[in-house]
Amino acid sequence: MAVIGGGFVGLSTAYWLSRMGKQTLLLEAGHLAGRASGRNAGFLLTGSPEPYVRLEARVGAEAARAFWELTRENRELLRGELLDPGHIECGFQGDGSWLAGVGGEGEADLEASGERLAALGFEIEWHRGDAVRQESGSPRITAALHQPRDGCLDPVLLCRGLAEAGGFPVRTGAWVHRLEPHGDRIEVVADGGNVVAERVVVALNAYAAALFPWLARDVRPVRGQMVATVPVDPLIRGAWYLNHGFEYVRQARDGSVVIGGGRRAADAEETGFLEYPTAGVQGALERFVGETYPVLAAQPIARRWAGVMAFTSDGMPRIGAAPEMPAVLYAAGFNGHGMSLGFVTGRHLARMAAGETDRPLLPSPQS
After folding, report:
1. What's the rounded Cα separation, in Å, for the pair 257 and 52?
2. What is the per-residue pLDDT across 51-76, written as a single tens digit (0 to 9) for each?
3. Tens of pLDDT along 211-232?
4. Residue 109, exposed/middle/buried by CB under 10 A (0-12, 13-18, 19+)?
5. What is the mean pLDDT of the chain?
6. Which strands form 176-182's sheet, in the order they lie side by side?
7. Residue 205 lies in a domain
8. In terms of DSSP bridges, do strands 247-251 and 257-261 run parallel, antiparallel, or are they unpaired?
9. Where are the alpha helices (DSSP H) in the chain?
């Protein structure tokens, strides 16, 4: 088996294939977690920042519920398999996650979503008042949905730990140029030497269209930008998705506050493959920090960075077999939810590659 892509989904796939006893080689053009998998906030969340009642109206009740259930399964699978037993040390902080709006934005939809999700059996609670302000560290956040089993982690350490725990060989610097049929197998034409494999899994997310140009019609690259302050005293507990996910915040173990988002300030400019921070979005993030967390306004920014996510038209990932090349599987378009879906997606891809299942991971959204 060959897996192309050393991000979270590719590493998870190789991990599960290795667990199944399959001889597996992972090929990565750069280094492990070198792109979006290592450039995100490290949120291990259930669901999405979009209020559930809106998601349900947009994709249908079946698809919305299945998506939330799958992210819950992903969280519990990752925690049970690797995090809680201490098999990977990646700074996991199990303080839960929060969905909120700054200054009351979207509060009615969030409260209704909490009621709907609780009725469906999700462990979720609606909080209001001083407790929310204290947990969030912000005087402008007064109500929020809390999921106590979610958390935060260091995504780079998680990815490196997956490679170590899986015990499979990794070949870095292996840029893959194309895939070609080779009898009943697939030849991977790559820098450093070609590989012939029984099955190939392409886990390149935003970059999958380099091998499958047809994916470019429905998988859109979108830059995400972030900043981190210098370490400060304890201020924020848990992972905070704010304003429908357009801003997100957490405090790392070293005390630095990590803030991401801000792309509403220049949405059109954020489409594409450029991975460097820009003045417009960075300025929007700094204004957001000053307005939402006044105590941080005078704190220096220690780091700035960016990564490229992949978005789809309906907000659901694209997972399946490549047309006219059924021995090749692909996964792309995680809509900023790779951490929330990646581990369970990797298990599903491994089962598909081993011929154990051909069912879809998620139902199709309503049209």
Report:
1. 27
2. 999 999 999 999 999 999 999 999 99
3. 999 999 999 999 999 999 999 9
4. middle
5. 96
6. 176-182, 185-190, 195-197
7. no
8. antiparallel
9. 8-19, 52-59, 61-78, 107-119, 130-136, 155-166, 279-292, 338-353
Total number of domains constituting the chain: 1
Q: How far is CA 200 from CA 68, 196, 322, 346, in A?
A: 28, 9, 10, 13
Do the domain assignments include residue 167? no
Residue 63 domain-assigned (yes or no): no
Mean per-residue pLDDT for 256-281?
94
Q: The CATH number of the domain where 286 resides is what?
A: 3.30.9.10
Structural domain of 233 = 92-152+219-312
Place of tokens 């912000």: 138
Is the model's pLDDT at 367 over the cut of 70? no
- Alpha-carbon distance of 154 to 156, in angstroms, equals 6
| Angstrom distance (rounded) from CA 33 to CA 358 | 28
pLDDT in tens, 143-169: 999 999 999 999 999 999 999 999 999
DSSP assignment, residue 300? P
Tokens describing residue 261: 């988002």
Q: Does a structural domain hold residue 226?
A: yes
Per-residue confidence (pLDDT) for residue 291, from 0 to 100: 96
Provide the pLDDT for residue 43: 97
CA distances from 84 to 19, 78, 239 (A): 18, 8, 18
CA pair distance 259, 272, nearest whole angstrom:
21
